[in-house]
């Protein structure tokens, strides 16, 4: 958890440069979903679900955008490809397909090949 979630929050909070491997991206997404569920449960128990969930989402907005952009850069796409998700239904599916693509096997214009682990 530390390497994929906490390090992204601490060391790469707003780092839009470089590349993120598929593993790093999807592990971040997994831990983010688990943390959001826990925040939702705690918020439901104390009666502040909307407030806590909103604060959590706001706190993770920048790191989520940053790792998404770095993931797109790993497949040699510019940051603006993230905007494809604005197309209803099809755009989100297309973006998920892009996130699932293997990264370029060698260095590209965005940096060196990220560690697989």
TrEMBL record:
Keywords, comma-separated and alphabetical: Membrane, Transmembrane, Transmembrane helix
Domain of life where this protein originates: Bacteria
Pfam families, per the entry: DUF805
Keyword Transcription annotated: no
Transmembrane segments: 25-48, 54-72, 79-99
Residues of the signal peptide: none
PANTHER family xref list: INNER MEMBRANE PROTEIN YHAH-RELATED, INNER MEMBRANE PROTEIN-RELATED-RELATED
Protein name as annotated: DUF805 domain-containing protein
Organism: Alistipes hominis
């Amino acid at each position: 958890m530390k390497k994929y979630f906490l390090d992204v929050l601490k060391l790469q909070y707003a780092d839009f440069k470089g590349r993120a491997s598929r593993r790093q991206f999807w592990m971040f997404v997994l831990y983010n979903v688990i943390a959001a569920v826990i925040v939702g449960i705690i918020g439901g128990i104390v009666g502040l679900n909307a407030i806590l969930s909103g604060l959590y989402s706001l706190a993770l907005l920048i790191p989520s955008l940053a790792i998404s952009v770095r993931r797109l850069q790993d497949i040699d796409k510019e940051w603006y490809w993230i905007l494809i998700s604005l197309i209803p239904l099809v755009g989100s599916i297309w973006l998920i397909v892009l996130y699932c693509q293997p990264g370029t096997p060698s260095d590209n214009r965005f940096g060196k090949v990220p560690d697989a682990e």
